Amino acid sequence: MTETLEDPLRPYEEAVALPGAFQAGLWFIGRIRTPWLRREDCPKRGDPLHGPDCLIEIGELWTPGLHGIDAHQNLQILYWMHLSRRDAVRQNPHNIAGSTGTFALRSPLRPNPIASSLVRLIAVEAGCLRVRGLDCVDATPLIDVKPEFGAFWCDTPR
Amino acid sequence: MTETLEDPLRPYEEAVALPGAFQAGLWFIGRIRTPWLRREDCPKRGDPLHGPDCLIEIGELWTPGLHGIDAHQNLQILYWMHLSRRDAVRQNPHNIAGSTGTFALRSPLRPNPIASSLVRLIAVEAGCLRVRGLDCVDATPLIDVKPEFGAFWCDTPR
Question: Pick from A89, A106, A146: which is nearest to B146 by CB?
């Protein structure tokens, strides 16, 4: 797996000195299994209609929380982008002159590197959800699963 | 503000013994100001079209991250539901016979109580975002702001 925490900043990018203490803590409630073993292999954006099946493994403690999830076709997945540096406030993702604020980007580099993906639920298996629409690296830590009511998918070429 | 961490479980609800150590930490990057001072006053769901203006105050360290955000009309806001107990895996939100798994609900009670809201950006002010569509209690801690590309709003009665 690619370790990027030490990646140097690009031209025009700006980082801050991070605060010391955290204000809240997260438990990883599971792990996401995908076909992409390195960050550079991941697609730019997940495809809930035509993307490959991925497996969301739920930790044993939390599996009672899956009861009734099969009633939902669309799920929102929150996960922790564990390979991302957290101190970049201005970024230059396209490597051109100038930079953009982190909060105006969906870049994985952010103070709290939490990603949100909308996926389609394909099947509920033993302690696992089979879904389509993810784009993260294999073994990414899972933070939350919620039903998604507002999503819609268009089955048209991109 | 209502403190609910000690709220008793309802009939049919189930809690687990929480793990000890956290696996990741969060910084609160700001604070959300809303008209609702108690949880019981909050609307069930935010309304990005007709809801009241709310203010997202960004901590001074992070304000360079706002550069360019005015290019986006729709934003995704992640915040920390600091009043929610974290150990409920089966819940009975409607107080009827039976329960539903936490991951099949958007209830604030979840292992990692992170909420995700889609809002409309009304204005960028000094270190603040004026938005519509939130439904959280005043002074809720902010975790992240991202541009939202998939959202659409229907201006029809609910």
Answer: A106
